[in-house]
Amino acid sequence: MASERSVDVLILGGGPAGSTAGAMLARAGIEAVIVEGERFPRFHVGESLLPHTVPLLDDLGIHEAVRALPHTRRKEGASFVTHDGSRHVAYWFAEAFPPAIPHAYQVRRDEFDACLLANASALGVEVLEGWKATAPIWEGRRLAGLRIEGQGGEERVLRARVVLDASGQVAFLANRMGWRFPYAMHRKVAAVSHFRDVWLPDGREAGNITIAVTDGGWFWLIPFADDTVSVGAVMDVARWRQAGTGPEALFSSSVSATPEVGRRLAGATRLLPFSSVQNFSYRVMRLAGDGYCLIGDAAGFLDPIFSTGVFVATTTAASAAEDIIDALGRHGRVDSGDFAPTVSVTRSLHRLFFSFIRAYYNPHFLAFFFNPSRGLQFPQAIVSLLAADVLGPGLFRKTSRFRSLLALAWMQELGSKVGRPLVAPLGATPGGPAT
Ligand SMILES: Cc1cc2nc3c(=O)[nH]c(=O)nc-3n(C[C@H](O)[C@H](O)[C@H](O)COP(=O)(O)OP(=O)(O)OC[C@H]3O[C@@H](n4cnc5c(N)ncnc54)[C@H](O)[C@@H]3O)c2cc1C
Questions:
Q1: How far is the CA of 90 from the centre of ligand 1 (A)?
Q2: What is the DSSP track for 33-52?
Q3: Which architecture does CATH list for 3-72+107-183+281-351?
Q4: What average pLDDT values come out for the chain (435 residues) when binned by 10 residues?
Q5: Quick check: helix, strand or coil at residue 241?
Q6: Would you list the domain boundaries of the chain?
Q7: Which of 69, 218, 304, 310 is deepest in the core (most CB within 10 A)?
């Protein structure tokens, strides 16, 4: 017979979303329990943070602790390079529309996530590591708790006034309830490992993430403080399946198609076995209901190209925590409508970032991306998006420049069809050969 207990807020998952929500709730004096299937520290992809994540680190009181982690490296911008190295552009966070936050960090996620979770625990959150949720407990339309299982197979029932699903790509509730829909046109796979002795640029660019465009996909190169580098190849799942190979072969064939990455990895040594993540792009139709809300990756994910994942995870988590604090204070329970602010912020972040990500897969947009015209404030508009300056006042002005760029990309496409492109097209693009 499973033991049973009741808590105020039950949080599923101790990643950035779960630990942020937990810390904020505990700080407000609300009982919160995090159920985490793994034992931290654990490996995770997603090591490049954006500038507008930094204020949240300040708010949580862990900015210094994150900065002091052994592998944390300051970055001042994001660099992009074409597959053969012939085109290169660096966007600097300091050049965003004001008020700019001029830097962010590369973090090793085993350290970063453990730091966030330890902070939640220090603030009073009870953390149950090594316990997996196995089933939701519904009472009518209200989610009343979760059934969980320990590593030795022991079962418990945790009842809660409210449940936050922060289970990441597992998307615990969305998968079980049929709310998760993969993007049919955007089925990607990533193969990743850490390396040493990768060629890194000098000077200000040394700490930047580099994104290398390749035919059918892209690479990331994320340097840490000790000059080890996370390198990941992102590719269409269909291509990978055609080749019928594992992550190592996927990575090698992508390197062969991307001479610039081959050059940077020529003298490098791999430090970890390859891991892969498949089909990470999906949307979730229902984000909240009576007694529950989905936050972070559990609420949907498109593509990591612009490193928006941790920003979205922590922003939606902070918003859900506020909704809970407000609702419990007002009427002692949390209903579907109480999560309206979080649902709205989640949807608008997805909408905005998705349009930016889709633009990146459009070769005509990319031609401008690698060749931004300074006179029209396009670099500032792009940097503001790359820095995740997407909440608060002035958003329309910032995104209107981005929308103008989309219009230019459309004109570039028309011009290319009649042999008169506005700017020089790129040789290889993430969606496939340039058209
Ligand atoms: C290839 C790739 C590259 C990426 N690169 C970046 C990047 O550079 N920068 C960036 O910001 N983002 C990046 N991301 C996205 C980023 O990793 C995620 O957005 C971020 O980790 C989301 O945080 P989260 O807390 O929602 O989920 P997670 O960090 O995944 O945490 C979820 C937690 O829930 C736990 N869990 C799941 N199911 C259960 C269960 N049933 N019971 C108990 N526990 C459970 C898991 O063990 C996990 O610890 C990348 C993603 C991919 C796929």
A1: 27
A2: EEEESS-SS---S--B--GG
A3: 3-Layer(bba) Sandwich (3.50)
A4: 92 98 98 98 96 97 98 97 92 91 98 98 98 98 98 96 98 98 87 97 95 89 98 87 78 92 97 89 96 98 92 98 98 97 96 87 84 74 88 77 79 82 71 42
A5: helix
A6: 3-72+107-183+281-351, 188-278, 354-433
A7: 310
Q: Does ligand 1 lie within 6 Å of residue 300's CB atom?
A: no
- Rounded (5°) CA angle 365-367-372: 90
Residue nearest to atom 18 of ligand 1 (CA): 309
Is 223 a pocket residue for ligand 1 (Cβ < 6 Å)? no
Residue 190 Cα to ligand 1 midpoint, Å, equals 14
Structure tokens at 121: 């625990």
Class of domain 188-278: alpha beta
The answer for residues whose C-beta is within 8 angstroms of residue 273's C-beta and 6 or more apart is: 193
User: What residue's CA is closest to ligand 1, atom 9?
Assistant: 307
Which residue's CA is the nearest one to ligand 1's atom 27? 168
